[in-house]
Amino acid sequence: MTKKKVAFSGIQPSGDIHVGNYLGAIKNWARMIDEVDCIFCIVDLHAITVMYDPAEMQERILRAAAVNIACGLDPARCRIFVQSRVPEHTELCWLLNTVTPIGSLERMTQFKDKSQQQQENVNTGLFDYPVLMAADIMLYKANVVPVGDDQLQHLELCREIVRKFNARFGDVFPEPQERLSQAPRIMGLDGKAKMSKSLGNHISLIDEPDAVWKKLAPAFTDPARQRRSDPGNPDICNIFTMHRGFSPPEVVQRVNGECRGAEIGCVECKKMLLEHMLKELEPIRTRAKELIAEPERVYSALSEGAAKCGTVAEATMDEVRRAMGLRK
Ligand code: TRP
User: For ligand 1, is residue 320 a contact (CB within 6 Å)?
Assistant: First the structure.
């Protein structure tokens, strides 16, 4: 029997999981679940590199877990757990720090952006964030990492760390490859930045239908379309990008043609998107809300996941410590 490839991915428990996370990562990920050995991590230790309210953290973890499980990351078919419950993540991070050039971390655009956004809190954890991410991946010797394109630079750094480690201490880690989702980056509803949990420009997976429409109705489209008679360019329209994520191919094709030919208005186009989006998200929302109402079930699935991952993590750390001369 050939061994299944290991896939690892992480999501931050920061605010509600939204349509951008879903199309950009989770949907893709849920599809891989039987084809590869999937490990899915709620990265609370990454989330604390920005300001947050400790009193809200557990609730956020619960919601993140519930929504992901509802999206198809069934704990019976994959491992899902909370990062801080497997302490080897931070131990490996420290060891990897010693092979990571400062210059490489200084080049990370996410670090530069976040340092700009939170000038009052440019902490060392924010700087070291990519090394912790590399540790997440390497601890399970993951081969495949489903990510959005904004994480590619971090993954490239992870490969650099793998190469540096292996060159110095022996061939311990495989070089992970990204698995990009088909859906391109989803923009925020205001069209200004990518859809983000912290910017208030998103549609949450647990928003009720009327809330979804309230957000979709005024959402940004191709600015060239002032009137219905103005032809549009779907390639630059965020609504069309979401159509490609949610609508069946014939609808996508129709909307594409009719927008270019000015035969459909933006409101009509959004109503069609709403219909298909809700159809797909309805069972997810229902399931997620059931799970949020039964936290014990979620916590027990997470503990089980942490126990299984802990076993693998311990074995890897044993090998790493030996390779680095930290034990016999
Ligand atoms: N940095 C990722 C993000 O913000 C989350 C993450 C942490 C991750 N560790 C990971 C993703 C390991 C993939 C693999 O999206």
Answer: no
**Tens digit of each residue's pLDDT (9 = 90 or more) over 253-283:** 999 999 999 999 999 999 999 999 999 999 9
Ligand 1 centroid to residue 154 C-alpha, Å = 9
Q: How far is the CA of 40 from the centre of ligand 1 (A)?
A: 10
- CB 320, CB 146: distance < 8 Å: no
CA distance 202 to 215: 8
Other C-beta atoms closer than 10 Å to the C-beta of 121 total: 13
d(CA 225, CA 115): 36
The residue extents of the domains of the chain are 6-186+295-323, 209-288
Is the CB–ligand 1 distance for residue 83 below 6 Å?
A: no
Query: Is the confidence at residue 181, as pLDDT, over 80?
Result: no
Distance 133 CA to ligand 1 centre (A): 6
Is the whole model's pTM more than 0.85, yes or no? yes
Burial (CB < 10 A; 0-12, 13-18, 19+), residue 289, is middle
Superfamily holding 209-288: Tyrosyl-Transfer RNA Synthetase (1.10.240.10)
Pick the CATH number of 6-186+295-323 from 3.40.50.720, 3.40.50.620, 1.20.1250.20, 3.40.50.10610: 3.40.50.620
1 pLDDT higher than 60:
no
- Residue 178 has φ and ψ, to the nearest 5°, of -80, 155
Distance CA 119, CA 225 (A): 38
